[in-house]
Design a protein that fits this description.
alpha/beta, 8 helices, globular
Length: 263
């Protein structure tokens, strides 16, 4: 009897064999997709690692900062000599992800996302791994204007949140902003970089929380890239690692939001 000859273990020769066993996961779409990751700190390290291992074909990474010693307890791609040499985070994350998945096209941009001349419509999804309100709102506004889904993540110690913004339906990041956010728009929460004009004590950071939030962000991105936005988180998911709980907070479009004013 003629036919395809199968040998024991042949399925292990395919890097993505186990992923292909998930019915809705579109591996071809992942390979052809272009993803923008803004922020290459703790969250950015984990997000890019997960995207590369998942088979995403093209990743652009933006970050303006260099590595410092305190980054090393929660950043996969940084080493001690990177801190000593003040290596740039975006470049180091791109280099590290290339080692994980050589077929991936990785483009690092060193600088502020506000200054980057990106072709926003060319991305299928944007993931935010940022530490300041101003940059978050910039990415949110551009993503929403160009109808590119945006997955925002943030952490504080053992707590974190993820918001999935799916234009033109549903609320965006700015819809959930309040007066206190507006007062700190120009304040940057990082003490590295040459443009620092404000300093405040650091927020707590912890690697297991970073890993959980980044994993959720990438999982939602995989749904979007596989054309399954119906499976995505709606509104905002909050995670509490101390209690081992998560919850979803409902949110509506804000009448005062400039991204989609309600008539």
């Amino acid at each position: 009897m003629e036919g395809t000859v199968l040998r024991p273990g042949s399925y292990d020769d395919d890097r993505f064999d186990r992923s292909k066993r998930i019915p809705w996961l579109d591996m071809e779409a992942l390979s052809d997709s272009r993803v923008l990751v803004v922020g290459a700190g703790a969250l950015g390290n984990e997000v890019v690692k997960n995207l590369a291992l998942s088979g995403v074909g093209d990743i652009t990474i933006v970050d303006m900062d260099h590595v410092v010693l305190s980054n090393l307890n929660r950043c996969l791609f940084f080493r001690g000599h990177d801190a000593q040499q003040k290596g740039m985070k975006a470049q180091l994350v791109a280099d590290g992800a290339k080692d994980l998945f050589p077929e991936c096209r990785l483009t690092p941009w060193v600088g502020r996302v506000e200054d980057m001349p990106f072709p926003w419509p060319g991305f299928q999804v944007v993931l935010g791994c940022l530490d300041n309100v101003m940059a978050r709102l910039h990415v949110n506004a551009h993503s929403y204007h160009h109808a590119v889904p945006y997955v925002d993540g943030g952490t504080d110690g053992f707590r974190g949140k993820v918001q999935v913004v799916l234009p033109p339906d549903g609320p965006c990041l700015q819809c959930g902003m309040n007066g206190s956010h507006q007062r700190i728009l120009e304040k940057r929460f990082s003490c590295t970089g040459s443009d620092v004009s404000f300093f405040m004590p650091k927020m707590a950071a912890e690697i297991t929380t970073t890993s959980v939030i980044a994993a959720i962000q990438v999982r939602e991105a995989l749904k979007i890239l596989s054309q399954r936005p119906d499976m995505c988180i709606r509104n905002v998911l909050f995670y509490d690692g101390e209690r081992g709980e998560s919850m979803v907070l409902e949110m509506e479009k804000s009448e005062g939001c400039q991204n989609h004013p309600i008539m």
